[in-house]
Amino acid sequence: MQRNRQKVRSYQTVNKVIACVLSLVFVLVACAVPVYAEEGQIETTPSRIPLTELEDTIDSYVATNQKNTAAVSIVAIKNGETIFKKAYGYADIEQQIKADRSTVFEWGSVTKLLVWTSVMQLVEQGKLDLDTDIKEYLPKGFLKKLEYDAPITLLDLMNHQAGWEDKMIDLWYLSENQVMGLGETLQKFEPKQIYEPRSVLAYSNYGVAMAAYIVEVQSGQPFYEYVNEHIFKPLDMKETTIHPSHQDRPDLMLRRDQVQGYTANVELIPKTKVYMNIYPAGGAMGTAEDAAKFLAALMPINHGHLLFKNKETLKEMLSTSLYYDGTSIPRIAHGFIEVEYWTPALEHGGNTLGFSNKLVFDPKSNFGLVVMTNQFEEEVYCFGLVQKLFGNNYRTSTVTSGNDGYYLTTRRSGSGFTKFYAYLLMEKYSTFELSNFTNVVEKDGIVEKVSFTYNDYVRVTSSTLLLIIATFIALAVAIVFNLRAIIGYLFRLSKYKSKKWERPGTGFDKYHVAINVAGLAFVLNTAVLYMRAVSLDSSYSSLRIHLIFNLIYVILALAYLVLLIYKLWKISYSKKRKAVYIMSGVSALLFAAFIVGWELYF
Q1: Cβ distance 369 to 77 under 8 Å?
Q2: Are residues 197 and 148 in contact, defined by beta-carbon separation less than 8 angstroms?
Q3: Under 8 Å CB-to-CB from 334, ≥6 apart: which residues?
Q4: Distance (Å, rounded) from C-alpha 552 to C-alpha 558?
């Protein structure tokens, strides 16, 4: 019995040992399985497409959208290494020149990332501070049109929150001989500050160029030379130039001449080779593979060691510097646009007159994509393919009902005759449409501002809207009165020719005729002004003659009104003649008020 008990105890002891061993093995296996699964799992894009299927996926996508494709060059990066690179379509459809990996594309606003990288390099060296007023880095009195006392910092420039208006004139030039030095350009074409710093996001090419000029001042080198030495050379980017006229790379200029620009519908754009005075905001040009080298260097896995001495500098650059108002939703990371696809990503897009591009990457998975096309405002690849590989970025907001209305982009001209365009293009949004914006700012149930990645829109108040409508009604009335007076004069002139009426255009009548002819000339002059303003070869100096004429018209209108009042007081005209003269006076007054109100004289 004792032996049986000992055997049982022995068996129990053995069983316990076996159970412990098995438990230990189970624990080890359980711990090992996740490791094995993580190590052995198939790597994917952020949208869960296996990287082994990436080439087939892109090939199929391009084939499906071939009819909307001119040329597109695509490079995919994983962990800082290129895993896919291919060009599709034609650089020149008419000449049947196929795009290849050597095809040159204009970077457009993707160039801005070179500026922010340069700024962060100087921050790392202690030569710049992101929170210091930029006036500390500029020559004394450099900026002359600041409207607010609040300082503008480099971080404000990165976040596009300096408050500057967007200027339309003198941005592009057809001749390289028209390009001036960066500092001279910034002073000559300084925009008006129409928003208080940090109150709105107003995307600003001028602000980016200002940051580049500060790099020039602090480094002692022209910005393009600084980039060549501190970005392009370390990254072996031999197929890219940021020279304002690209003269440092004649070989790239020749290759650029072989590329035509097209619309999103693949229609030829005749003239797309232009130059920018504020070239750091959008003047780089090169191959997609070279752009991929720059993107790879910014991935966290590389710690930015080719661009920065300290990995903490890259970490800071890729960290959020601006959130959407009143939220914890990231918006900008020191110049990068933050977009929440299926995973949060950093990106920047670019457009010129014949090219569209995008650089985008997921810092967590270190998957990145470069897309470059020779089409203006292209969306099939710069948006469609990006969402194919990164997932959709659809986000909705809660909006109080009853907020239908008109909204004005903050990226607009706020002074001079070009401010007309902003109001002409203001958008009407329903409450439902407002909910599709990334963020909505309300006060007491009234929407004040809506935002998406690259821009803000502010609500146009009812009083402002009524004032705008009133000005155009007044303009229409003035034109009707003006045409009635001219047609009436021509009718009277024809009667005089047939010797039935007295000769028109004598006495005060000649002033009446003159002011109406001047009014008609004003309408035609302004129409020509706006048509010329949107053409490539327009410059402020070439448009000044139109503005001077409008100013002269205001003076003539005031003179006519003074003379009209005097004549009506001194001379007794017939009721019909008096009504005609007064209608011409009203027309002149309304034209003059329109010129002053819309600033059509500067």
Answers
A1: yes
A2: yes
A3: 116, 120, 155, 158, 316, 317, 318, 319, 321
A4: 10
pTM higher than the cut 0.85 = yes
DSSP summary character for residue 392:
-
Pair 370, 297: CB distance under 8 Å: no
Where do the H-state alpha helices sit in 498-574?
A: 509-533, 540-570
Pairing of strands 455-459, 268-269: unpaired
Two tokens, residue 571: 């001379």
- pLDDT of residue 19 exceeding 60, the answer is no
CB-based contact 600:526 (threshold 8 Å): yes
Q: Which of 200, 224, 204, 195 is nearest to 212 (CA)?
A: 224
Nearest to 419 by CA among 431, 428, 410: 410
Residues 485 and 492 sit within 8 Å (Cβ to Cβ): no
Do the beta carbons of residue 440 and residue 447 sit within 8 Å? yes
The pLDDT tens digits for 175-223 are: 777 778 899 999 989 999 999 999 999 999 999 999 999 999 999 999 9
Residue 242 structure tokens: 């940021």
CA–CA dist 12, 306 (Å, integer): 64
DSSP 129-162: -TTSBGGGTS-TT-------SS--BHHHHHTT-S
The SS3 assignment for 142 reads coil
Provide CB contacts within 8 A for 602, sequence distance 6+: 416, 417, 547
452's tokens: 């998406």
Q: Residue 168: which of 558, 539, 524 has the closest Cα?
A: 539
Q: What is the pLDDT of residue 194?
A: 96
Does position 25 have pLDDT exceeding 60, yes or no?
A: no
Stretch 166-171: mean pLDDT, rounded?
81
Q: Report how far residue 484's alpha carbon sits from residue 500's, in angstroms, rounded to the nearest whole number.
A: 21
Asked if 62 contacts 88 with a C-beta cutoff of 8 angstroms, the reply is yes
Is the Cβ–Cβ distance between 248 and 229 less than 8 Å?
no
Mean pLDDT, rounded, for 42-68: 97
Q: Does residue 528 contact residue 581 with C-beta atoms inside 8 Å?
A: no
**pLDDT (tens digit per residue) in 349-400:** 999 999 999 999 999 999 999 999 999 999 999 999 999 999 998 778 999 9
Tell me the pLDDT tens digit for each residue of 309-328.
999 999 999 999 999 999 99
Q: Which amino acid is at 333?
A: A
Q: Is the dihedral of CA 586, 592, 595, 597 positive or negative?
A: negative
